[in-house]
Amino acid sequence: MRTLVATAVVLIVIAAAVSSWSDSTVPADPPALYPVGPEPITGRAVIPNPGDETPQRDPFSPYDPGPPEALWQYAQLGAAEKTVVDHGRDTGGWSSVHDGFRNAVLEQQPAFAAGAAASQLGIADLATLGVVP
Questions:
Q1: Within 10 Å of residue 115's Cβ, how many Cβ atoms?
Q2: 130 domain residue, yes or no
Q3: Domain hosting residue 126, numbered range
Q4: pLDDT tens-place values along the chain, 133 residues long
Q5: Residue 32 resides in a domain
Q6: What's the sign of the alpha-carbon dihedral 8, 13, 16, 17?
């Protein structure tokens, strides 16, 4: 009985191997290739429709809110909205928050500088070299 089961398992494995590695299959047609002209090296991006390009916006400039009449004036706000605006105008407690962030950045700066130097040198971990930043 064992030999019958073992023989059946071997035949199934051989049948699976033969059917999956058969050289008789016809290769599929290669995908159609579309002619693509060489991209000119001009320092500018290629634009498919000249005239449709959008100029690059300076990421540090604020967005233009539109014409002055589109802006809300303080007098147009309701009482609840004025309360929110007035709360935002109170900048008295902001200096402690700013000082906290400044101190945190100054505290972490040596570690960041060491990490940047290690990255430039191609060293994965300074601790494995025995170097203490």
A1: 14
A2: yes
A3: 99-133
A4: 888 888 888 888 787 766 655 555 555 666 556 555 555 565 555 556 667 667 777 777 888 888 888 888 999 999 999 999 888 887 888 889 899 999 999 999 998 888 888 788 777 766 666 666 5
A5: no
A6: negative
